[in-house]
Design a protein that fits this description.
With 301 residues, the chain is α/β, with parallel strands linked by helices. It is built from 8 helices and 8 strands. β2, α2 and β3 form a beta-alpha-beta unit. Bound molecules: NADP nicotinamide-adenine-dinucleotide phosphate.
Length: 301
């Protein structure tokens, strides 16, 4: 799949919602879609940082149609308020890019008391998707941003928040990124009765130099490997290409997992391999049940 082929796709009637749109991959995606005349809704934890990002986009593309609204994925109330604003102010959503994330941070909890990485990276996006689900257009796409870190992930449904075992920052990240893939599969499975032809897929950027690496716990393996990552990493825009491909691929197939091609072929996007756990149907069902319980939803039950 060639990234450059996407440039001919007309996005002028598309509404694209991106979480974490003020920085890193989310910002690059927002800028790209704005340059292609889409209407971009950026969901941001800090509205101040959101407005700064909006100003940067408008500086380069003065005609861009971009709106940034506050949405803290670590707070149920903030997600609810954001969803209400989106539903009341905007037409149907064509693409929901669940991108925001945090990696291997020191132990912290969300407003509801959930371990922060599972809470933001998975549960926050699960809840947002549930609240916006009826507001998705025909042929809409839901794109969940995972990571090859999921290959190290284990989904501990009995203790997802590290209450019974010692907290390990990278393990918590890997679990949350595995959850992104399981969420994608189970969502597709539950969409088969929906007449809108909505498709869920996942994507990952490989390693891209963004601020994701700045908040990593001091003792984390990622902190130690940061200099190596620095050498291997691509730019934020390069890392965003698989995410954009997942949003726009004209030959999309549900459950596709888009990733970068070789470093020497920057125009290529390929389908990446998932761990056997990521394809475990029972695990995906159980995670769905747990996510509905924790967010007090009955999303697609
Ligand atoms: N960069 C990589 O090499 C890499 C590799 C694999 C996967 N990924 C995935 O790519 C996605 C984007 O990461 P990135 O590299 O672009 O990182 P980034 O530059 O740190 O951007 C992360 C974005 O998520 C937002 N965010 C964090 N916590 C949030 C919350 N509670 N509510 C709402 N938004 C929140 C951040 O907002 P603030 O600016 O306010 O903090 C920021 O906009 C993540 O899901 C990550 O797991 C990245």
């Amino acid at each position: 799949m060639k990234f450059s082929h996407l440039e001919s796709i007309n996005l002028s009637h598309k509404t694209i919602l991106i979480t974490g749109a003020n920085a890193g991959l989310g910002f690059e995606a927002a800028k790209y879609f704005a340059s292609q005349q889409a209407h971009v809704i950026g969901a941001v934890r800090s509205i101040k940082r959101g407005h700064a990002a909006q100003a940067l986009i408008l500086e380069t593309y003065p005609q861009a149609n971009v709106t940034f609204l506050e949405c803290d994925l670590s707070s149920k109330e903030s997600i609810e308020q954001f969803a209400l604003k989106v539903i009341s102010q905007f037409p149907l959503i064509d693409i929901l890019l669940n991108n925001a994330g945090i990696m291997a941070i020191p132990y912290a909890t969300t407003k509801e008391g959930f371990e922060m990485q599972f809470g933001v990276n998975h549960l926050g996006h699960f809840y947002l998707t549930a609240l916006l689900f009826q507001h998705l257009n025909e042929n809409a796409r839901i794109v969940n941003v995972s990571s090859q870190a999921h290959l190290q992930g284990n989904m501990d449904l009995d203790d997802p928040f590290f209450h019974k075992k010692p907290y390990q920052a990278f393990k918590a990240y890997a679990q949350s990124k595995l959850a992104n893939l399981l969420f994608t599969h189970e969502l597709n499975a539950r969409l088969h009765n929906d007449s809108r032809n909505i498709v869920a897929v996942s994507a990952h950027p490989g390693v891209a130099m963004t601020s994701l690496f700045d908040k990593v716990e001091v003792n984390s393996i990622i902190k130690l490997l940061k200099p190596v990552f620095g050498l291997l990493a691509s730019s934020a825009f390069q890392g965003t290409k698989p995410l954009i491909m997942a949003c726009l691929d004209p030959h999309i197939i549900k459950d596709n997992y888009y990733g970068p091609g070789s470093k020497f072929k920057p125009d290529d996007v390929v389908l990446s391999k998932m761990s056997p756990l990521a394809k475990d149907k029972n695990l995906a069902k159980e995670l769905w049940r747990l996510s509905n319980n924790l967010t007090q939803q009955s999303f697609l039950e």
